[in-house]
Write a structure and sequence with these properties.
OB fold (Dihydrolipoamide Acetyltransferase, E2P); 5-stranded antiparallel sheet; SH3 type barrels
């Protein structure tokens, strides 16, 4: 192991890799002497304290870390965000909002944690980060990992759903990536790529539906605002044959990132390129048969979504290649050029 040459490090008698991964505390978390809760905590860490990972992987759901005060210990992985970029800078796209560090959770309201709350069901208590609803809400607020989006198509989303259906008797209750059984949604094969929940992906398609959501628990019953529910599919298709992609309020609303503007793009019949985090919505059921609709279920061919959307482009030309973002017009630019 190469050691830092800083005199303070030599004086303290410890060293660490120059390329050691960093992590940021995103919720209050105990620093513990072992990878368990059996012993008393060393101290309570608060956001946004920065930590250095002493080991790249987890042990029993804990990361082995060193604090800025030179304390070594273990922290529960759900309460920290690991920087996967190597540079400590947020993932960003000129066609979208500024994102929190990859692997962390979008949040702009301390009273509405990433797990969401029970507000919809009449209680203001936060969901736990071990409950199914809390884990699902975290997945919906997860800042995607990966610098270059994996290109998927509608067939890939259908293949991902077929994959889940073939492995689970109750596919809509498959756990999210933050559950101990998260491997169920990791490294899954599609028609043109292998992907995991939480990864940065993109898909080019046409808009088939746009509408604001109501007070969902992920947004603390509307205290954080509302998601914009968007369905995309093949040209001249219907919502029944599309997939769901969502803009979330926690990332802010750049110019044009509103339901009225997106609806105008839909009315113009323009192709769009949607980029964001791949998420599995285990709260719902596939609803793709208009002859046998499922009450209360969004129309779609797959429970796999792009949620949250981190960049949104419009094809204002005759041909736009998803591999070349310069051929596409950012939604904000399109909105300014086509103001009503």
């Amino acid at each position: 192991m190469r050691c830092t040459t800083a005199l303070v490090a030599l004086a303290l008698g410890w060293c660490f890799p120059l390329s050691a991964q960093q992590a940021t505390v995103i919720r209050d978390v105990n620093l513990r002497p072992t990878a368990s809760s059996a012993q008393h905590a060393i101290r309570l860490l608060h956001p946004p304290e920065t930590l250095t990972l002493l080991e790249p992987g987890q042990t029993s759901g804990y990361y082995h870390v060193r604090t800025q005060q030179d304390e070594s210990g273990w922290v529960w992985s759900h309460n920290v965000a690991v920087d996967t970029t190597g540079g400590g800078t947020p993932a960003a796209d000129p066609a979208g909002p500024v994102l929190p560090p990859p692997g962390s959770f979008a949040s702009d309201n301390a009273s509405c944690p990433a797990t969401g709350t029970h507000t919809v069901s009449g209680s203001s208590a936060p969901y736990s980060d071990t409950s199914d609803a809390g884990l699902r809400n975290m997945a919906k607020r997860h800042s995607p990992t990966g610098g270059t989006p994996v290109t998927l198509d509608l067939f890939a989303f259908h293949a991902l759903q077929d994959d889940v259906n073939s492995r689970f008797a109750d596919a809509h209750l498959t756990k999210t990536q933050f559950h101990p059984d998260r491997q169920a949604l990791m490294n899954r094969p599609t028609s043109n790529a292998t992907v995991s929940e939480g990864e940065l992906v993109q898909v080019a398609a046409y808009l088939t539906a746009v509408r604001p959501e109501k007070g969902e628990s992920v947004n603390c019953g509307g205290a954080d605002g509302a998601d914009i529910h968007i369905n995309i599919g093949a040209e001249h298709s219907t919502e029944w044959k599309g997939i769901v992609v969502e803009m979330i309020p926690q990332l802010g609303r750049p110019v044009g990132w509103d339901s009225a503007t997106v609806a105008r793009v839909e009315a113009a019949g323009l192709r769009v390129l949607v980029i964001g985090g791949l998420t599995y919505d285990n709260e719902h059921l596939v609803n793709d048969d208009p002859a046998h609709p499922k009450a209360g279920q969004p129309k779609r061919i797959s429970l796999w979504e792009i949620h949250p959307i981190t960049a949104f482009y419009v094809c204002d030309a005759s041909v736009c290649d998803p591999a070349d973002h310069s051929q596409w017009t950012p939604l904000t630019t399109w909105a300014k050029a086509h103001a009503p």
